[in-house]
């Protein structure tokens, strides 16, 4: 009897810590420090993890339990989020200021989460205080379990590529600009894994080295602050195989657009004369022309890369149609498996009735002469107490009101500055329309979920537009971009209980309020739907010192 009790207690402990005993654990210890980096050739203060920028790669397999003990050696509170990792039943570890207390300077905190039923390419990054402008990000890649078929041959090797726009001003200077009510303006250039190459430079450190005849997987993420990019390989085409956790139809591309916050995997075969080639990244839809290159080397190859770069796709109006057509070519491979043995397409999302339509419009505002951004007339602010903790301790009334933000954009350009929380209903099948009436491109991301990116179109959304949705093989992913004066639609089932951040992927916009939270509460308060608050959870604000509510059972 006693031993049976022990087993039960052990099982409950495992469940409540968000892990199942049979899945392997991977342990990491990370020191977060300042250190000098020069992504654009100019030394500046960067944020390093174990001395590295980009930070260490997390290489894992579906269902692994990840334990990361993060030591904050900065002089400011710090948090990391694992963007695209769904954190089933576990918004406690999501790393946003609405769900967690930040790790104070000199302290450490151990994240514990499971990459449950996921495969694919993701990244982690700091959510606090514009730290992302200084680094702190890295690749998180999830392999399929051995017995699950992968719809392409195992590549000879894999290369992680984190790229994006970059500012030579440090994050503290950029933050001072935003706090004073101004925009940080345009970036200084583009970095590729911490470097920025120019055509003709002598290169000692190639981005990748390939053996002739072999095929390689490149996992590429845009970790920039605001700029969409296009990337391409000189002399080589790319076969798209994966996008933010879904296996795609394997189309071949000369070049690919990648918007801020997005990741994808391409296969590249070393089938050209053995020498160096350029990997080219250029800014898209930006008022500033920016291009960087990195070198792709052939093992035992001879000769430098040709100075003639493959051209970028068109810009402006023609560029938007080009990019939109490319988006429409991205399809879910219905017969391929992802993390589970059954085909991805066995989930027929197009046949589910929509229970709620939420239309969200981004806007730019002036509040007391200072720049703010927001959604549907609400510019979100983080307080001392994380929203999730206030809600869990029954103290939400002291911290926020549900539904300050409405399901429809308001008329006019008025704005409220307040914590922005949507009261969402557990298991609703929702349609979210993103309306972008501004002149700049947007990217959005939702924590805790993947969604079906069913449409992007120019103009304004109306219910008739639903007939244009891709209800068959839209890619299930966690980001969507919206071109200027356009809209986008996504669909998902809100079956992951927790407090989940929906945010602009543009660092300046999210910092100045273009984000909100979905509170998805299971009425059952049951372990079936949500894990208990971890015993190690940091408490802060008004919930510090309060007695813990009765645990879920
Ligand atoms: C982190 O820093 C501590 C000293 O502050 C050191 O003992 C430890 O080895 C470091 N860990 C890693 C993984 O670098
Ligand atoms: C990453 O994980 C995969 C699957 O577990 C393994 O085959 C591969 O060798 C790992 N790569 C690295 C660099 O650790
Ligand atoms: C901080 O690190 C120590 C030493 O590794 C560890 O024992 C402790 O659990 C960590 N604290 C938290 C809150 O994760
Ligand atoms: C889809 O995946 C299957 C594996 O199930 C693969 O054989 C097929 O080539 C893929 N189709 C396309 C169009 O990429
Ligand atoms: C949230 O919405 C549900 C209905 O879906 C309602 O029962 C509940 O009272 C609402 N909660 C708050 C705090 O408004």
Labels describing this entry:
3 domains, Immunoglobulin-like, 6-stranded mixed β-sheet, binds 2-acetamido-2-deoxy-beta-D-glucopyranose, 553 residues, mainly beta, 5 helices, 7-stranded mixed β-sheet
Describe the protein.
The protein has 553 residues and is mainly beta. The protein has 3 domains: 2-143, Immunoglobulin-like; 158-324, Sandwich (Immunoglobulin-like), CATH 2.60.40.420; 347-531, Immunoglobulin-like. Helices cover 9% and strands 36% of the residues. The protein contains 5 helices and 33 strands. Strands 9, 10, 12, 14, 15, 16 and 18 form a 7-stranded mixed sheet that branches. The chain has a 6-stranded mixed sheet with strand order 22-21-26-31-28-29. A 5-stranded mixed sheet has the order 11-20-19-13-17, with no helix packed on it. A hairpin with a 6-residue loop joins strand 1 and strand 2 (44-49). The longest helix has 15 residues, at 2-16. The two termini are 21 Å apart. Bound molecules: 2-acetamido-2-deoxy-beta-D-glucopyranose (NAG) (5 copies). The site of one 2-acetamido-2-deoxy-beta-D-glucopyranose has 5 residues, from strand 6. The site of one 2-acetamido-2-deoxy-beta-D-glucopyranose has 6 residues, from loops. It is an enzyme of class 1 (oxidoreductase). One of its GO terms (molecular function) is L-ascorbate oxidase activity. Keywords: Glycoprotein, Oxidoreductase, Signal. Its EC number is 1.10.3.3. It comes from Handroanthus impetiginosus.
């Amino acid at each position: 009897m006693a031993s049976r009790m022990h087993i039960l207690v052990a099982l409950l402990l495992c469940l409540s810590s968000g892990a199942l005993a049979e899945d392997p654990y991977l342990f990491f210890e990370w020191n977060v420090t300042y250190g000098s980096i020069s992504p654009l050739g100019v030394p500046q203060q960067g944020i390093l993890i174990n001395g590295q920028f980009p930070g260490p790669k997390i290489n894992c397999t579906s269902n692994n339990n990840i334990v990361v003990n993060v030591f904050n050696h900065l002089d400011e509170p710090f948090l990391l989020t694992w963007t695209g990792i769904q954190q089933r039943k576990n918004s406690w570890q999501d790393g946003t200021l609405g769900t967690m207390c930040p790790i104070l300077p000199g302290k450490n905190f151990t994240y514990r989460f499971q990459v449950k039923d996921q495969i694919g390419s993701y990244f982690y990054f700091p959510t606090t205080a514009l730290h992302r402008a200084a680094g702190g990000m890295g690749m998180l890649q999830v392999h399929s379990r051995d017995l699950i078929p992968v719809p392409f041959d195992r590549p000879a090797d894999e290369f992680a590529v984190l790229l994006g726009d970059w500012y030579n001003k440090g994050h503290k200077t950029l933050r001072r600009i935003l706090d004073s009510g101004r925009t940080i303006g345009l970036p200084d250039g583009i970095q590729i894994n911490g470097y920025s190459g120019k055509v003709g430079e002598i290169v000692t450190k190639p981005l990748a080295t390939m053996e002739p005849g072999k095929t390689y997987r490149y996992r590429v993420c845009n970790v920039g602050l605001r700029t969409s990019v296009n990337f391409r390989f000189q002399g080589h085409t790319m076969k798209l195989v994966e996008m933010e956790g879904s296996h795609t139809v394997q189309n071949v591309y000369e070049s690919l657009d990648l918007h801020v916050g997005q990741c994808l995997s391409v296969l590249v075969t070393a089938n050209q004369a053995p020498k160096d080639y350029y990997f080219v990244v250029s800014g898209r839809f930006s008022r500033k022309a920016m291009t960087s290159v990195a070198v792709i080397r052939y093992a035992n190859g001879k000769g430098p890369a040709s100075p003639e770069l493959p051209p970028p796709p068109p810009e402006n109006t023609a560029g938007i149609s080009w990019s939109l057509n490319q988006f429409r070519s991205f399809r879910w491979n219905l017969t391929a498996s992802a993390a589970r043995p059954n085909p991805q397409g066995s989930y027929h999302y197009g046949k589910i009735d929509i229970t709620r339509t939420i239309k969200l419009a981004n806007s730019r505002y002036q509040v007391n002469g200072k720049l703010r951004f927001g959604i549907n007339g609400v510019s979100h602010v983080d307080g001392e107490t994380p929203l999730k903790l206030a809600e869990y301790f029954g103290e939400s009334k002291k911290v926020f009101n549900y539904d300050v933000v409405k399901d429809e954009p308001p008329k006019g350009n008025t704005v409220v500055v307040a914590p922005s929380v949507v009261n969402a209903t557990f298991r609703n099948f929702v349609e979210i329309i993103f309306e972008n009436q501004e002149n700049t491109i947007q990217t959005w991301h939702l924590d805790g979920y993947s969604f079906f990116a069913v449409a992007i179109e120019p103009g304004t959304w109306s219910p008739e537009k639903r007939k244009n949705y891709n209800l068959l093989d839209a890619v299930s992913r966690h980001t969507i971009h919206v071109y200027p004066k356009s809209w986008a639609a996504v669909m998902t089932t809100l079956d992951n209980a927790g407090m989940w951040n929906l945010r602009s992927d543009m660092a300046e916009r999210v910092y100045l309020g273009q984000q909100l939270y979905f509170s998805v509460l299971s009425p059952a308060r049951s372990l079936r739907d949500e894990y208990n608050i971890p015993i190690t959870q940091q408490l802060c604000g008004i919930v510090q010192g309060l007695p813990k509510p009765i645990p879920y059972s």
